[in-house]
Amino acid sequence: xxxxxxxxxxxxxxxxxxxxxxxxxxxxxxxxxxxxxxxxxxxxxxxxxxxxxxxxxxxxxxxxxxxxxxxxxxxxxxxxxxxxxxxxxxxxxxxxxxxxxxxxxxxxxxxxxxxxxxxxxxxxxxxxxxxxxxxxxxxxxxxxxxxxxxxxxxxxxxxxxxxxxxxxxxxxxxxxxxxxxxxxxxxxxxxxxxxxxxxxxxxxxxxxxxxxxxxxxxxxxxxxxxxxxxxxxxxxxxx
Length: 239
Fold this sequence. Notes:
Layout lengths: L8 E4 L8 H16 L5 H10 L1 H10 L8 H15 L7 H8 L11 H9 L3 E6 L3 H11 L7 E2 H4 L6 H10 L7 E5 L2 H9 L3 E5 L21 E3 L2 H7 L3
Parallel strand pairs: 1-2, 1-4, 2-3, 4-5, 5-6
């Protein structure tokens, strides 16, 4: 077992790790359609939206001359393209805004809030997410996430897995990277964090992508902690 005794702060991937974005959005939009009168295959839209997530951030990386764009902006741009692709009619600007803000209204996995609450008793806890600060703050209010602070890619103007995000989080906390642990349900996120000197904890979320899940069913690296849920991480860290 890895020595994690020096860890002072835990930083968390959020989409998929802390919150169930897919079920939350599908249920939100399905309910909204009953009063808005807008009909669409919301499951297909949500899956399509998430499918272009990485590519939208790659565009920001490829074009530094355009400046950094927050995730809310990227989500809105992707949504407008998808609405056209899916031929969804009758959406006003306010409707598009409501759908985009759906990412601010995501529900946590059942173990997330109890586990975070336990971990908070001993450690600094914060998101380290590609979501922008307003998104993560609104989500914390909505979902009852007990963060000590909100760290976002927006603060570093770099999206994960760029090194600036992981190292920037440690710097803001005035801690060396080895005293910060990255918690994620995604092996690639942990690989990048580990490469930059952070400790790592893996929690599997095998239903994140519903029937479309293709990877991250299990730990695929030499992570410091592998647990079935946040409670398991709290157990391992003595909370």
